[in-house]
């Protein structure tokens, strides 16, 4: 499988502090690939660099055969890479409906009614909340809205940063069920997730990051069976 999204030799710094030390990874079309690691490992920085929010010191990001390093975030979204940031980033003072519409604002085509129906099938509660201000939603509902808003741009690749953060276990199961469903419908996913067990049982392949470096990569089946991973991330 050729890579739909690839990062090569990426170095990123915050001022004098190096955050990524020449990492490389790839995601093939139709895959869910996860990045796991402790806080501060560089996972969020990786996603922010892919989506154009950060500029690397060196290295390249390619998407669908094109180099997108240094391209503005809105242009990357328009190309088909959508980012659901850590902390959700919804517009709290706008309604659920307005948030969904903003997700589609870069599109040249008209949003079909079937697309809203798809969102409401994935997350029925959003249909009930459609006229509410997004800031009045629960944390889980806000996460559902953030994912839905990203889907409105019709992405080929979805970058998900900590979708389970702060959610009750029951909601985590529901969110990850939808992530699998979105993938089954054809969206490629790069997933950053603190809940290593959930990430590894959802994704096809995984990369393990430690202090800005990728220290391990394998199928998720192999990573789940690894003593090193069990000890460091799975409480085994």
What's a quick, concise take on this entry?
The protein has 10 helices and 10 strands. It is an alpha/beta fold and 236 residues long. The strands form 2 sheets. Strands 6-7-8-3-9-10 form a 6-stranded mixed sheet, sandwiched between helices. Strands 2-1-4-5 form a 4-stranded antiparallel sheet, with helices on one face.
Molecular structure report:
- This protein is of the alpha/beta class and 236 residues long.
- The protein has one domain: Rossmann fold (3-Layer(aba) Sandwich), CATH 3.40.50.300.
- Helices cover 37% and strands 28% of the residues.
- Strands 6-7-8-3-9-10 form a 6-stranded mixed sheet, with helices on both faces. A 4-stranded antiparallel sheet has the order 2-1-4-5, covered by helices on one side.
- The longest helix has 16 residues, at 169-184.
- What is the makeup of the main sheet? 6 strands, mixed
What would the CATH topology be? Rossmann fold
Strand order of the largest sheet: 6-7-8-3-9-10
Beta content comes to: 25-35%
Form type: globular
Structural class: alpha/beta
What's the total count of β strands?
10
- Helical content stands at 25-40%
CATH architect. name:
3-Layer(aba) Sandwich
The helix tally amounts to 10
CATH level 4 superfamily: P-loop containing nucleotide triphosphate hydrolases
Average residue-wise pLDDT: 92
Secondary-structure element string: EEEHEEHEHHHHEHEHEEHH
Number of structural domains: 1
């Amino acid at each position: 499988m050729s890579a739909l999204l690839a990062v090569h030799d990426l170095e990123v710094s915050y001022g004098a502090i190096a955050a990524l030390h020449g990492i490389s990874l790839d995601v093939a079309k139709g895959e869910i690939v996860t990045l796991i690691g402790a806080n501060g490992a560089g996972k969020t920085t990786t996603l922010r660099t892919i989506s154009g929010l950060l500029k690397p010191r060196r290295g390249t990001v390619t998407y669908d055969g094109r180099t997108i390093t240094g391209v503005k975030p809105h242009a990357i979204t328009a190309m088909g890479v959508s980012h659901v940031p850590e902390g959700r980033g919804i517009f709290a003072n706008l309604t659920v409906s307005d948030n969904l519409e903003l997700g589609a604002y870069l599109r040249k085509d008209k949003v079909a009614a079937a697309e809203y129906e798809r969102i409401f099938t994935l997350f029925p509660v959003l249909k009930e909340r459609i006229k509410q201000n997004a800031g009045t939603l629960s944390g889980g509902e806000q996460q559902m809205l953030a994912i839905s808003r990203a889907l409105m741009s019709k992405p080929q690749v979805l970058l998900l940063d900590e979708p389970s953060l702060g959610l009750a276990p029951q909601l985590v199961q529901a969110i990850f069920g939808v992530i699998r469903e979105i993938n089954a419908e054809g969206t490629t996913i790069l997933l950053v997730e603190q809940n290593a067990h959930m990430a590894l049982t959802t994704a096809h392949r995984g990369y393990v990051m430690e202090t800005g470096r990728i220290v391990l990569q394998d199928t998720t089946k192999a990573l789940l069976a690894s003593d090193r991973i069990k000890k460091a991330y799975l409480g085994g």
